[in-house]
From TrEMBL:
Record-given protein name: Uncharacterized protein
GO CC, alphabetical: extracellular region
Matching Gene3D superfamilies: Ribonuclease T2-like (3.90.730.10)
Gene Ontology molecular functions: ribonuclease T2 activity; RNA binding
PANTHER family: RIBONUCLEASE 1, RIBONUCLEASE T2
Family note: Belongs to the RNase T2 family.
InterPro entries listed in its UniProt record: RNase_T2-like, RNase_T2-like_sf, RNase_T2_His_AS_2
GO terms under biological process: RNA catabolic process
One Pfam family here: Ribonuclease_T2
Length: 109
């Protein structure tokens, strides 16, 4: 966690206050399925998906999810931005206000 999800607001902090906030604000929505350890593991896995895409294309993607009939969070869209000419990828100036669950499935086709 110190390496992959550090607190940037207070670099000298150990991260516990920051991670507690993340769990209280976001993780508790999934506590009937995931304990704290599983929640943070899944969040870091999602970050790995973003990192893999960023590594491949050189730009930060936005990952959007939807919910299937069983209530599972599944990958829906990956956003990348292009310049005005539509010919080159650019860093997105803003991302949509959407989020994924802490456990993401790939939809079946």
């Amino acid at each position: 966690m110190q390496k992959d999800w550090p607190t940037l607001a207070c670099p000298s902090g150990n991260g516990v206050t920051f991670w507690s906030h993340e769990w209280d604000k976001h993780g508790t929505c999934s506590e009937d399925v995931l304990d704290q350890h599983s929640y943070f593991s899944r969040a870091l896995s999602l970050n790995s998906i973003k990192s893999a895409i960023q590594s491949g294309v050189g730009y930060t993607p936005f990952i959007e999810c939807n919910t299937d009939e069983s209530g599972n969070s599944q990958l829906y869209q990956v956003y990348l931005c292009v310049d005005n000419s539509g010919s080159k990828l650019i860093e997105c100036p803003a991302f949509p206000h959407a989020k994924c669950g802490s456990q993401i499935e790939f939809p079946s086709f």
